[in-house]
Specification:
The chain is of the alpha/beta class. The protein contains eleven helices and seven strands.
Length: about 290
């Protein structure tokens, strides 16, 4: 009797779109509204996914370093919002491991509640979400005394500074920042503009409103870098993705070296004094 013909095996499932990593949970991407219900990417979500994946490429080596030091490494995403980054990191890196945690800190209770529900639905058991202010997150018993990595993706205005303060207090080995909406320094520049114009020709740099905004943003990140260097971190400052994808595009990666840059604090003090911004010293010098 001749053998019955074998039923051909179905081809392996293809990702919903070629941009999506094969190990990525499609259900997660739909829940985050990166994919539509029928598994498609629109232009806006494609841009968002590209940014998060590109950031993942920077964070993955830091996670590898953290797990080389500790089998139960902890990453805290500060100002997590809807926790896009935390979920992607867990899905791609931690899901296949027995240990390691991702903790999202967000002050909007409704976002914390929805993130908890999504983590439960997906079985992401080592994700935690806390509705805490910066001060509460620093002292809360719900968080470990030390953490390995702190991230802040597009944390608006002073939220990036809050993440830095948290990271320094928790002695984070690595800090990854994509700053956004740096309005505080620009507001201080505007407030003292007349006095600065009479005092120094450097005030021409921010005399026009558009320059005030741009210079304020640049200056904010310079001061943040000096603060991190004063606390013993070595820095890489680069672009996250091409400018055609996002104007909020600066990426700051800080690694704890334990060797403070000797003149970093003095440089920050001199900059603030020169630009008539000494009122901002408590935020950038401590």
């Amino acid at each position: 009797m001749s053998a019955l013909p074998r039923t051909p095996k179905p081809p392996p499932a293809m990702p919903a779109a070629p941009e999506i990593r094969p190990e990525q949970s499609i259900e997660l991407l739909k829940a985050l509204h990166i994919l539509t219900r029928d598994g498609k990417l629109n232009q806006d979500s494609r841009r968002k996914l590209k940014q998060v994946y590109h950031l993942y490429n920077f964070i993955e080596p830091l996670l590898e370093e953290s797990f080389a030091r500790s089998a139960d490494a902890v990453l805290v995403d500060h100002g997590a919002g809807k926790s896009y980054l935390g979920f992607i990191l867990y899905d791609l890196f931690l899901k296949a491991r027995a240990q390691g945690k991702v903790i999202g800190i967000e002050s909007r209770a409704e976002l914390v509640k929805s993130s908890r529900a999504l983590a439960d639905r997906l079985g992401f058991a080592r994700m935690r979400f806390h509705d805490l202010s910066v001060e509460e997150s620093i002292t809360s018993a719900q968080l470990p005394a030390q953490v390995d990595i702190v991230t802040a993706l597009h944390a608006c205005n002073t939220a990036t500074d809050d993440a830095i303060r948290f990271a320094l207090h928790k002695q984070a080995q690595s800090i990854v920042l994509v700053p956004c909406c740096q309005a505080e320094v620009a507001a201080a520049l505007r407030q003292h503009k007349s006095a600065s114009l009479s005092r120094t020709p450097l005030a021409e740099i921010w005399r026009h409103p558009i320059h005030t905004r741009e210079f304020g943003s640049q200056l904010t990140n310079v001061l943040r870098c000096l603060l991190l260097e004063a606390h013993g971190y070595s820095l890489t400052v680069t672009e996250l993705v091409g400018w055609e994808h996002s104007m909020k595009n600066e990426l700051i990666i800080a690694r704890r070296s334990g060797q403070p840059r000797g003149n970093a604090r003095a440089r920050a003090e001199a900059i603030l004094a020169e630009l008539n911004l000494t009122s901002l010293a408590p935020r950038f010098i401590y």
